[in-house]
Amino acid sequence: MGIPEGMAKPEEQRLGPVLRRRDQVQSGTTDQRLLDTEGDSEWVHTDPWRVMRIQSEFVEGFGALAELPSAISVFGSARTKPDSPEYEAGVRIGRALVEAGFAVITGGGPGAMEAANKGAREAKGVSVGLGIELPFEQGLNQHVDIGVNFRYFFVRKTMFVKYAQGFVVLPGGLGTLDELFEALTLVQTRKVTRFPIVLFGTEYWKGLVDWLRDSVVAGGKASERDLLLFHVTDDVDEAVALVTKETGK
After folding, report:
1. Which stretches does UniProt call biased (Basic and acidic residues) (predicted)?
2. 122-154: per-residue pLDDT in tens?
3. Which of 58, 167, 206, 215 is the most buried (most CB within 10 A)?
4. At what angle do helices 85-99 and 236-247 cross, to 10 degrees?
């Protein structure tokens, strides 16, 4: 059912909050398109439908995580080997965070993320994994007790920050760097407050810290005080003490 036969196409059409005029007027009504079972399924790939999917991801994430105790998000490479010192450090960090009274949130994948979840689970704490839909996704690791999978990176990023009181960042690749600089930007611009960021592994992070100081700050692209937005350590106890002190626990 479109425009009745013999009637001219209207010059103006209101579809909810949307106004269409002249050549942009559509045939039929919103209800008709909803109830019509014929035609293709391209509508599920339109931007308005994506908005609903995005909204549903926020609702699911908020619902699943709303009752978490104080938590720390731990980041690191999915490629970290289980027999490596970095993996063992992740386990010790996850365990120590639980013993300090925190839940542990990771990206839910293998490697360093799995290590932190394992440590949290061994300490009988709350072990959370926030996964992401990727072509090479391996699923949530076996040490996750509460898991949420997301389609959209930006929704997942919101959950990492909203439900954590700080970040501990183990050696990692582009995804880890993305999360790190997202957090640094939020703290620098005061979008979040009292949000400690600890980089674990002085040798690994040395080149990045040197570049920030000698190129970014020296070139006037950032302030000297921006280097105080994060801490670097090789000591698990110090990492936990830093997030505990700055979060006021």
Report:
1. 8-24
2. 999 999 999 988 776 667 999 999 999 998 999
3. 167
4. 40
